[in-house]
Amino acid sequence: MTRVLLVLAVFAFFALCVYGMYHGWKRRQAKQADLPAFPAKPDTLGAPKLATTGVYIGTTNAGNWQDRIQVGDIGHRAEATLSLVPEGIAIDRTGATPIFIPADSIRDARTDRGLAGKVMFSEEGLLVVQWENQGHLFDTGFRGDDKDVYDEWVAALSQNPVNTEGKA
Question: How far is residue 81's CA from residue 142's CA, in Å, rounded to a whole number?
Fold first, then answer.
């Protein structure tokens, strides 16, 4: 009888944890409902200047590396291809909707150790792009399969005309 009660107690605790996570996810979605809609990916894009494969880590409110955006499927991690095209940055995610960051909205690019609850051992484990959408700043993180290309990405994104006008 003691064993049955112990199993029921463990099951109840597990169910309570799952309920808490679900409730927190829904509460965060409701809190973020007033965020501006993410830009749609254009039907046609120019030839990629840079491209790399890896994992889309997530998007957060800029400056708060753990405040993951949960609206729609933006918060879902997924294998992805990151492409720098003349129109901006295209993130084609496997099993999720693509994400597009227009070139004129890019404010900064850097390497970082963590974003959206994902922490890397090295200081340069993630490529993070800060961008603005209707006055709201976001950080979008990507963990590339080849981290040696991060410097090339940061340099290319730093040449963005918006960044040179002092709007960073």
Answer: 9
Q: Is residue 142 part of a domain?
A: yes
Sign of the alpha-carbon dihedral angle for 56, 99, 82, 92: positive
Residue with tokens 């960051």: 101
Q: Provide the residue range defining the domain that includes 90.
A: 50-164
pLDDT per residue as tens digits for the range 64-84: 877 788 787 888 889 999 999
In the chain, how many domains are there? 2
Comparing C-alpha atoms, which of 122, 126, 124, 129 is closest to residue 108?
A: 129
Cα(49)–Cα(157) distance, integer angstroms: 11
Within the chain, which residues score under 50 in pLDDT?
162-168
- Tell me what pLDDT residue 118 has: 67
| Closest listed residue to residue 51, CA positions, set 85, 78, 27 | 85
Co-location of 17 and 98 in the same domain: no
